[in-house]
Design a protein that fits this description.
The chain has 14 helices and seven strands. The chain has two domains: 3-213, Orthogonal Bundle (Endonuclease III, domain 1); 229-332, Alpha-Beta Complex (Nucleoside Triphosphate Pyrophosphohydrolase). The radius of gyration is 24 Å and the shape is globular. The chain is 41% helix and 14% strand. It has 336 residues and is an alpha+beta fold. Bound molecules: iron/sulfur cluster. Iron/sulfur cluster binds next to helix 10 and helix 13. Iron/sulfur cluster binds at residues 144, 147-148, 191-192, 197-199, 202, 204-205, 208, 210-211, 216.
Length: 336
Amino acid sequence: MPGVVASQVTFRRSLLRWYGENARKLPWRDIPNPWRILVSEIMLQQTRVEAALPYYDRFLQRFPDARSFASASEPEVLAIWSGLGYYARARNLQRAARLIETSFPSDFGFIRALPGVGPYTAAAVASIGFGLPHAAVDGNVLRVLARVTGDEGDIADSATRQRIAGLAEELLDRARPGEFNQAMMELGATICVPRNPRCLVCPVALHCEARKQGRQNELPVKRPKGAPTAIECAVIIIRRRDRVLLKQRPADSARMAGFWELPAPEDAPGVPVLREAGEFQHTIVNTRYRVRVLVAAPVRIVHLASAAAGAQWVPQDELEHIPLTTITRKALRHIS
Ligand code: SF4
């Protein structure tokens, strides 16, 4: 790893100057309060910044501190997270809030041990929220440093990731760790992007091996992933006056326990299908669902199969207040 290690001081200075002049305005950057940082980092774990922004504002208006979230009811927790996906994050965040309650300790070991907090999130909260010197290494930082150092290891391999994480610790500006971490992530998100990085305006271009070698589009090296599994399914919208029939996922479901969803056609055998309202795709991890949305003829009584036990008629104007699965939320747009 040549170049960058030899000139760490200039690397830091160039990066921080650029960040000071170009940082995007994001709400969690306005007030570096550890609770707000934790909420933002948990939300951003599997969600893009643009998608998380409206949820973040709404969440903090309702739960401005850990204590208020610690005492929220489960339906309330799921409802405020509804649409963001990966609901284990919301449950973990509430368990974390119960450990924090009124005072968030400035202690890396405590932060790292919080539920749902891995090494990256712990370092981000510790450095941005408390100014503790820990390098936060996410996918953006891995990409930037793989290019800067010309690292040819497979970025999915733990040995490559550990090597790059070690360099990130070495490069970290210990006087301004929060800013440094955010600057690295910002560089990866806005300049050193996965395809066609904007090397001409990059503040660390002079330190970059990939650029020197003209290999910025070849690095980092990535092993090809397996193709996603495709699943075709259908949901049925059954209405009675202003109510929609929904069923609740059992409490012991591996995914989205307690959430409400539209029944599948096989849950309501004998219900006549009036029309097909459309279809959409929804991807969860490595599974791509193609979902057909069926609309039933108005019915007075529905006999549900046992798989749909726990079904209820829910008034349409209450739908936004209960936790719905994302597939159901998308499907209901076909009748709104
Ligand atoms: S010079 Fe290009 S490849 Fe190197 S860090 Fe900057 S944007 Fe990334």
